[in-house]
Amino acid sequence: MKPVPPPSIDPRQVPVIQVDAHLPAVPTDRYAPQALRARFQSPPVWQPELVVEKKFMDRAPMYAAVMIPIVMRVEPTVLLTQRTSHLSTHAGQIAFPGGKLDENDVDAAAAALREAQEEVGLAPDWLEVLGQLPLYTTGSAFMVTPVVALVRPGFTLQPNAYEVADVFEVPLAFLMNPAHHRHHQMHWQGMQRQWLSMPYQDCDQERFIWGATAGMLRNFYRFLSA
């Protein structure tokens, strides 16, 4: 779930105006399963940093949910997808498993669990839902609830080939270190627009995490560091 870039604009080429190396990384002891459970059970006083993007698509709002799957390896990771290039929206972008709420979904957690299974074959039996982050409204009019869950290692994935070009993992410690959070800015549609990116070098390729996905990860950083 990410905003669509302006036509012919490569977000990688948009100037970086700030890197947040001055902010502290989340202490690694907060990544332990018991620590993550405790944080959601007794949340700290905190404020999300990013909640509404500047609108760039004129359509009725749609409610959606995404799963932020934290794989509990020795060094925990976040499971992400790369969408296929032929999709009509968000083509080729890096995203969490997720999508629009269906009328049969009882809540955002149910939608996120369903989407994780439909998109990448991650069965609910492998997941332990911890809680939710605040609603995030994208510039493309999606009102997204991020659902955070622990994932037991040992799962087998079956990505939906129509929607998902690739599935990969990024270390949680990398994403929770603001030294890797870059602020971009450009002038488009008569106004200044800004977004975050968190480019991750995965072997011989760059995973360019940006937009709504990066914004929700930034809120997760604020939640864990509070």
UniProtKB/TrEMBL annotation:
* UniProtKB keywords: Hydrolase, Magnesium, Manganese, Metal-binding
| Native source species | Rhodoferax ferrireducens
State the coiled-coil residue ranges.
Answer: none
Sequence ranges assigned to domain Nudix hydrolase in this UniProt record: 61-192
Question: Is Lipid metabolism given among the entry's keywords?
Answer: no
Tell me the protein's name: CoA pyrophosphatase
Report the Gene3D superfamilies cross-referenced here. Answer: Nucleoside Triphosphate Pyrophosphohydrolase (3.90.79.10)
- InterPro entries xref list: CoAse, NUDIX_hydrolase-like_dom_sf, NUDIX_hydrolase_dom
For whether the record's keyword set contains Metal-binding, the answer is yes
Cofactor(s) for this UniProt protein = Mg(2+); Mn(2+)
Pfam families per UniProt: NUDIX
Q: Which GO terms describe its molecular function?
A: coenzyme A diphosphatase activity; metal ion binding
